Amino acid sequence: MFCILVVGLDSRLSALTSLKTVAFILAILRLIMELYQLYSRKVVGYFNDWVNWFELAEYISIIVFLVSVERNGCFCPQTWEWEVGVVSLALSWVVLIAWLQVMHWMGLYVTIMLRIIVSFSRVAIFGVLLVVGFGLTFYLLFYQPPQNETMVNFGRVTVKQSSIFFLHRMLPVPSAVLCVLFCQ
Question: Is the pLDDT of residue 114 over 70?
Fold first, then answer.
């Protein structure tokens, strides 16, 4: 578990608290703007754009993360809180790329990058299917179940012991000599 204890360091605590407050206010304002956009575009028109889905998820995850992390002057996020923070950071990058696509000097590069990512994901899905399909086939083709060594040895010893027993009955040779000859 990750924990930053800020006891006795008033300057760091105030900086962390003020940064948290600014991020919280900005997330609330952006969420209000998204809700206004939802109202003005109507629900169906708003959810047709994939960027709106990412923006809503981003602002909600930021608010959940900021509300839940600080307890008693200690920045100690639990596992689920840390995961919500990581998801909000990843969503922030996706929204930043969507915003850069609107700018005329950067939009072409972002569009090309998105097309490359879509093409690569199609090829990667096909490649994963091929690798899994052929890998599973060859694994099953060349699979050799492990042999139980104790059962094989036990069977061999039993056969040897019975042979020695019968040879000892038929030949006038001591069993130790027969065991040295046949037990190797």
Answer: yes
Query: For the sheet containing 70-71, what is the strand order?
Result: 4-5, 74-75, 70-71
Q: Which of 32, 18, 91, 40 is nearest to 61 (CA)?
A: 91
Instruction: Provide CB contacts within 8 A for 167, sequence distance 6+.
Output: 173, 178, 182
Domain segments of the chain as ranges? 4-127, 149-182
Instruction: Identify the CA nearest to 35 among candidates 69, 59, 10, 62.
Output: 59
Using CA atoms, how far apart are residues 40 and 34, in angstroms rounded to an integer? 10
User: What is the Cβ-side half-sphere exposure of residue 109, based on CA atoms within 13 angstroms?
Assistant: 7
Tens-place pLDDT, residues 87-99 = 999 999 988 988 8
Q: Which residue has the tokens 């972002």?
A: 110
Residue 70 φ then ψ, to 5°: -95, 125
Kindly state the greatest CA–CA separation across the chain.
108
How many CA atoms lie less than 13 Å away from 172 in the CB half-sphere?
A: 0
CA angle in degrees (0–180, nearest 5) for 102-39-27:
60
Q: 42 vs 173, which has greater pLDDT?
A: 42
